[in-house]
Amino acid sequence: MSAVEPILAAHDVTIAYGDRRVVTAATLEIGGGERVALVGPNGAGKSSLLRAMTGVLRPGSGVVRLCGAPIDSVERSAVARTIAVVPELIQLPFEMPVHEVVALGRLPHEPPFTGLRPADRHAVAGAMERVGIVHLGHRDVRELSMGERQLVFIAVAVAQAASILVLDEPTAHLDIRHQVEVMELVRDLNERDGTTIVAVLHDLALAAHFFPRIVVMDGGRIVADGPPAATLDEAHIRGVFGVDPALVRLSVGAA
Prior knowledge:
Helices cover about 35% and strands about 25% of the residues. It is built from nine helices and ten strands. The chain is α/β, with parallel strands linked by helices. It is globular and about 50 Å long. The strands form two sheets. The chain has a six-stranded mixed β-sheet, with helices on both faces. Strands 2-1-4-5 form a four-stranded antiparallel β-sheet, with helices on one face.
């Protein structure tokens, strides 16, 4: 549990889909400015807990708090201005230039029916420059590589100007170069901009290298929470992931 005043917190959260319980009595506090990775095997409850903590999914019991207030008591527009979510890589079914996709990040800030204001256009241009995709501005997002597309959706989140960035498997389906590029960008957004980062990851090596705090989930429960050396040790890798630790190469402590 974080020693920093939490900006986002789940307290004793339990989530079930019908009769199937996927998260049990999970308590997780994220301090402002932290960089935290959630790891665990498939079906551990990581994404479900993340959905509850972003207000998308209402838990069966327990409470999620955003800046100290129950998240279901906060207006959705206020939640959207505070939490930006980058989902697993998605496909757009229609043509849309990159700059228009990035502009979607300004929707929580736009007055209804007025369209983009000069401040919004400035934020969009700044987000594209920050992420390094200015040269892609007029490309159809469907024509981009998966790595480029992931950067576009991170730019959407940056344009949203939220203080919390939540990513669900941001490196899924990417080659090694783009995995590292995305993770270095996420780290830079945290260290240079002060953005609070919460990410679900499957790749333990990336988690250990880029995140100073790792939360391990197994069977719907949080079983470890702390620095990589304590949470991705041999006992947890063997007990949670069911593999020989000698087969998992980690760069612990490099974050």
